[in-house]
# Entry
Amino acid sequence: MCENGMYVDDKVSEYHCFNNLVEEVMYTYYNKVEKEQRASDIPYASVYFQYGSLLIDLDRWEDAQKALEKARRWNPSSANIILELCETYKHLKQFDLFFETVKDTFKYCYEPHTLARCYRALGWYFTEKELYEDAIAVYVLSLQFEPSDFVTSEMYYISQKSGKQFEHPDFEETKKVAEKYGIPIGAHEDVLGITYSLGKDAMEKDVKEAAKYFFNFFYQLTGNETVKELIDKLDN
# Structure
């Protein structure tokens, strides 16, 4: 599998396969982008992502990592791609890289399911390190964004392995764990700023469908009733 030469970065342009404007804005916001951003007509990011996932299913972890690294090159703002790549770090025992990459992925999570997956990934890491209270804290955070049988079974496993019954931590206890590792509680502030700003800009331009699209990301992550009212008004 090889990329078409017409989509090779040059002195003035670089090519990506972002899924939407949120991902493109994230990329330009987090990086010093000086070149013109162009979209590839071929969905390389999706192709390499699917290929890498297939290789994972075949237990070809090193090959999967290479494919997913290519997917990430084409779409560096996709939390789904990054978290799939982290699965290869896990199985290839690149644990420090796994931990740091998962933490960095929070700034790309604009959907609840990827945010929950980040917390679950950290829960697995803390469990492996036998940091059980920290694991419980991030698993509980994950459940705020997506229900998961995996989390239920992992919390049971922790109780069995440690011989202790852990209580769900309160907010202050969770906050301490988050601060200790530099983990956001809930959506990353930059993600909220980007999704809200895109929604507001679209609303001011009277592009209602786009405004609802961006505001919905913000609302799904926060449950903010003021934004929900804006979405409802845009429906009228």
About this structure: Strands lie at 13-16, 36-39. The chain has a mean pLDDT of 93. The two ends are 48 Å apart (CA to CA). DSSP finds twelve helices and two strands in the chain.
